[in-house]
Design brief:
It contains eleven helices and no strands. Helix 1 (2-13) packs across helix 5 and helix 3 (39-68) packs antiparallel against helix 5 (83-113). The chain is mainly α and 255 residues long. Helix content is 85%, strand content 0%. The chain has one domain. It is globular, with a radius of gyration of 19 Å. It has helices at 2-13, 16-35, 39-68, 70-77, 83-113, 117-143, 147-175, 182-189, 193-204, 212-222, 225-252. The longest helix is centred in the middle third of the chain and has 31 residues, at 83-113.
Length: 255
């Protein structure tokens, strides 16, 4: 398994797309911090990139990489290796490689300009989102054999988590405006890792006051140690559950 992970990481890190992705993140991060007179403003601008670009790239890159590695996967399956080990090797290799690119592109500027608890929290959330969408990409790729349909599913999943989910939540809030939905919204937010990461960062930046009464509810829950712990456990489950189902599917899939 270690040899497979090492090969996958070497192959990915030498990819031009991965190098460009890292450079773009690094240049964008340095530009945002340099243009803003307040580091918190730069961090807030950077948050939007982390919540949109990082999940999109992690999802698409991982999906395409799995499809392009079909022949290599078939070769490994023909060897005396457990399918579970093969699939987990691809998962670990993709997750570590994309996380390394994120840490170099986003982490270095954050540590230079915002070396504090909020900066570290931003990095942790970004790494977790990277790994989460790698796991979701692996689930999407193993479900559909056709490459075009698989990439299409990956794009639809990103649109759901980044755009459609917020619209669905707003629809519920308008439809049930007469009912106290602030506390149920805490549970609903757990259904979207992007929203959960956004809430964790915004509350640390003291922007919850701009979110009204709902922001106060979120701060009372996610502002506590227990709330933060539950949030990180939920984000971890977003890694474990898709990875479990994709591994189960790969074990039974006829290649």
């Amino acid at each position: 398994m270690k040899k497979i992970v090492k090969y996958i990481m070497t192959d990915i890190l030498r990819s031009r797309i991965m190098i460009i992705y890292t450079i773009v993140l690094l240049a964008t991060s340095l530009s945002l911090f340099s243009l803003e007179d307040n580091a918190n403003k730069g961090l807030l601008s950077l948050l939007n990139i982390i919540l949109i670009i990082v999940p999109l790239f992690s999802l698409l890159f991982s999906t395409i990489y799995i499809y392009n590695s079909t022949e290599f996967i078939e070769l490994l399956v023909s060897q005396p290796l457990q399918r579970k080990s093969i699939w987990l090797s691809f998962s670990v290799g993709l997750a570590i490689s994309l996380s390394m690119a994120f840490v170099i592109g986003i982490g270095v500027p954050v540590l230079l300009f915002q070396f504090n608890a909020i900066g570290f929290l931003l990095l942790i959330v970004g790494i977790l989102l990277t790994v989460i969408f790698v796991a979701i990409a692996l689930w999407a790729a193993v479900q559909i054999r056709d490459k075009a349909k698989g990439i299409g599913l990956a794009i639809l999943l990103w649109m759901y988590f980044s755009l459609l989910f917020d619209g669905f939540v707003l629809f519920l809030l308008f439809q049930f405006a007469d009912y106290p939905l602030e506390k149920p919204m805490i549970l609903v937010s757990a259904l979207n890792p992007i929203d959960l990461g956004r809430i964790l960062i915004l509350l640390q930046l003291d922007i919850s006051a701009m979110m009204g009464y709902t922001g106060a509810i979120f701060k009372d829950f996610f502002g506590t140690i227990a709330g933060v712990t539950i949030a990180f456990i939920t984000l971890t489950l977003w890694i474990i559950i898709p990875l479990y189902f994709s591994t189960h599917k790969f074990n039974r899939k006829d290649l």
